[in-house]
Amino acid sequence: AQSVTQPDIHITVSEGASLELRCNYSYGATPYLFWYVQSPGQGLQLLLKYFSGDTLVQGIKGFEAEFKRSQSSFNLRKPSVHWSDAAEYFCAVGAHQAGTALIFGKGTTLSVSS
Amino acid sequence: EPEVTQTPSHQVTQMGQEVILRCVPISNHLYFYWYRQILGQKVEFLVSFYNNEISEKSEIFDDQFSVERPDGSNFTLKIRSTKLEDSAMYFCASKGQPASTDTQYFGPGTRLTVL
Q1: Which chain B residues in 49-68 lie under 8 Å from chain A, judged by CB atoms?
Q2: What is the pLDDT of residues A23-66, one digit of tens each?
Q3: Distance from CA of A94 to the nearest CA of B (A)
Q4: Is the C-alpha dihedral spanning B75, A104, B101, A61 positive or negative?
Q5: DSSP state letter for B64
Q6: Are B110 and B84 in contact (CB under 8 A)?
Q7: CB within 8 Å: B56 and A99
């Protein structure tokens, strides 16, 4: 069955430090992969997505993610975290059929310390 | 920038009561979704809706749930007889194109509390 695992429930990073949020997926074929962010009181906002091609994907707000098929991973990275990045981050996988639903991980809460 | 809106932001109800959660998808979108997130758990898919009918639903979406697009702008989720375990954050999402590569845009959610 398809699934997404985000091993880290909560991460604290110092402002200006680098960040990596882990995501592992289980899927029978090449997946479509997404990272969403949710700030308090806000909806889920798409950071970036991967479908094919270059395995390093650039997103908004300075985020990037790398698809590694051999490790079934799609980790999110940012070289220098800002206090405004504090939020909850969700990794999701989608199937190839049109209109199908996303399968989400449990999310990782990011706190940024000064 | 167009966005998905949801009302109310927080709904408190008694067990056994009916609730209707409302969503206004982005205006030219054709695919609509409901997801929910029980506190501390994953965001889970409930149902997708296209061309005025359900296109896919999860095992969570039992006979207590129904969806409707009553007019050209609203998309609603009804829970007929709420249970304590229905307490969750409910997210609506919409998508413009059928391709799986197209982005689903999410609303801010409605927090449902069943007492």
Answers
A1: 50, 55-56, 58
A2: 999 987 778 899 999 988 777 899 999 988 889 999 999 999 99
A3: 7
A4: positive
A5: T
A6: no
A7: yes
